[in-house]
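User: Hi! I have a protein structure encoded as tokens and I'd like to know what sequence might fold into it. I'm fairly new to this, so please keep things simple.
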């Protein structure tokens, strides 16, 4: 059974690459370029994992993590934060993300990190 990943990434090229690569690795992928209602999006798409950029219009990745992890119905969902702002994102560990992958990311490392949570 395919595992569902919700990606939130505002860079269209990065989103396209992530969707293509993760689909190749047998994941069902839904990509959004932004969200102002992450709990609504999680309920609509029912992901097994959320992969989010940090710098986003609307809710940033840190706030997305806080909202997912702060909600009783969604806190079990792993959240992976990706960002080019390495030091800032690492310092924001209190947002509750489960893993951090720096941009530019190594796609094999990213897939390995995702599989660690979904297998």
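Assistant: Happy to help. Inverse folding works backwards from shape to sequence: for each of the 119 positions I chose a residue that suits the local structure. Here it is:
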């Amino acid at each position: 059974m395919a595992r569902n990943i919700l990606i939130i990434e505002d860079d269209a090229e990065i989103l396209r690459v992530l969707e293509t690569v993760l689909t190749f690795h047998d994941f069902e992928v839904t990509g959004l370029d932004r969200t102002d209602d992450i709990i609504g999006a999680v309920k609509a798409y029912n992901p097994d994992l959320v992969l989010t950029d940090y710098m986003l219009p609307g809710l940033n990745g840190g706030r997305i993590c806080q909202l997912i992890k702060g909600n009783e119905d969604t806190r079990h969902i792993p959240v992976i934060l990706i960002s080019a702002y390495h030091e800032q994102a690492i310092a924001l560990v209190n947002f509750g993300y489960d893993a951090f992958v720096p941009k530019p990311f190594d796609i094999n490392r990213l897939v390995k990190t995702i599989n660690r949570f979904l297998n």
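A useful reference point when you look it over: The mean pLDDT is 91. Feel free to ask if any position seems puzzling.
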